[in-house]
Design a protein that fits this description.
Length: 394
């Protein structure tokens, strides 16, 4: 049995942050009923890459979910959602704050309909504060801090190469939801989860916040190295780049022996992590001159054999065939009628009771499950559903 096998989720989210969270819940067994605007659907359906006219991006985040189309601007659409709310354990939305209240479906209304429901909201700036109603996307949250410390000195501010703000908020939202579902089970009552993309981005800034205060200046981009651990970065061999992570002084002394520089292990300039970081320019000049003497495979074998963390820098095509990742079932297959067979990311969370399978069900078409859900959950007959479709409610 999957952990959330009996959890029914109404998913009003779109694009990435919210759908990423409900994707995780689906992996854990929850039934995700994705509620979409009729004919238009989730904005992400229009995001590439496309194959045979269907978004592979949308498929990767929404695989295994169900979809009903519902016009929430119509009174009948709102009434249907209210009926569904009374059957659900969880409702998730990532509208701009105030949108659900304008629809007459804010948390205060919803909890009266179903006192045990968990209401989870993910928005750009959260449901409180002077900027709460501002619109946002991933790049705005990245611009709030992380872009200022990403990239190389002297270069323009750099966006992280994936939507880290949306993904981070999706993860925090999932943590909040899981906590709320546990409390729901204990108390029998629901609660509201309020997660902002900005807050989540601040939450993963790691040591930048304390460094700013301790060093009395804002951190700046420093390329691919770690700001306070040395050597912990990419280096160039005579053929290509690779990474090493010498995380403590014991590893440093061993590392010096491996590369034939035993004297550096006791040199006061480099003998502690603090002094190595302070003297990183001089240290890197020495290491660069050493690493250029062999190819990356040779260095990686020597360093890895000594149990010092290191690795190649993979392109994504190489990652797709990585032996360890595939052994861990991190790439699973979706067989979609339009797209065909495509690999998507598997579940990183391994549970001893969660069976590993190498496939996932495809993402739904807009309103694909209208009949099944409305008949099974609300008892509507086919003729009534047909009429709702004609009236523009579905």
């Amino acid at each position: 049995m999957k952990p959330f096998e009996n959890i029914k989720v109404l998913d009003l989210t779109r694009v990435l942050a919210g759908p990423f969270s409900t994707m995780i819940l689906q992996e854990m067994g929850a039934e995700i009923i994705k509620i979409e605007v009729p004919e238009v659907g989730d904005d992400a359906r229009q995001f590439g890459p496309f194959k045979n006219g269907k978004s592979a991006y949308f498929t990767s985040i929404n695989r295994g979910k169900k979809s009903i189309s519902l016009n929430l601007k119509s009174e009948k659409g709102k009434e249907i959602l209210k009926e569904l709310i009374m059957k659900a354990d969880l409702i998730v939305e990532n509208f701009r704050p105030g949108t659900m209240e304008k629809l007459g479906l804010g948390y205060e209304t919803i909890k009266k309909l179903n006192p045990r429901i968990v209401y989870a909201a993910c928005s750009g700036f959260g449901h409180t504060g002077p900027e709460s109603e501002k619109a946002s996307y991933d790049i705005l949250a990245q611009a709030a801090g992380i872009m200022s410390i990403t990239g190389w000195p002297g270069n323009p501010p750099t966006r992280v190469g994936m939507s880290i703000a949306d993904i981070g908020s999706g993860l925090y939202l999932t943590i909040g939801i899981m906590s709320a579902l546990y409390q729901q089970k204990v108390t029998g009552l629901g609660l509201k989860v309020d997660v902002s993309i900005l807050d989540s981005q601040i939450g993963i800034l790691e040591n930048a916040i304390v460094r700013t205060q301790v060093e009395n200046k804002a951190p700046e981009p420093i390329g691919n190295r770690h700001p306070t651990i040395t050597p912990f970065q990419a280096y160039k061999a005579n053929d290509k780049w690779f990474v090493i992570a010498v995380g403590n002084d014991s590893l440093w002394k061993l590392f010096c022996k491996v590369i034939g520089k035993d004297d550096m292990g006791t040199n006061p300039k480099f003998s502690t992590n603090k002094t190595r970081t302070e003297n990183i320019i001089e240290l890197n000049q020495i290491l660069d001159s050493v690493f250029i003497t062999k190819n990356s495979d040779e260095w990686l074998k020597l360093i890895d054999d000594a149990k010092i963390p290191c690795g190649p820098i993979n392109s994504i095509d190489k990652l797709l065939v990585n032996e360890q990742a595939n052994f861990r079932n991190m790439f699973v297959e979706v067989d979609d009628e339009k797209i065909g067979k495509i690999k998507v990311v598997g579940n990183p969370v391994k549970l001893s009771t969660l069976e590993e399978v190498n496939f996932r069900n495809p993402a739904p078409e807009i309103g694909e499950n209208n009949y099944d859900i409305l008949k099974q959950l609300l008892g509507y007959d086919s003729d009534y559903v047909d009429n709702l479709k004609k009236e523009g409610v579905l």
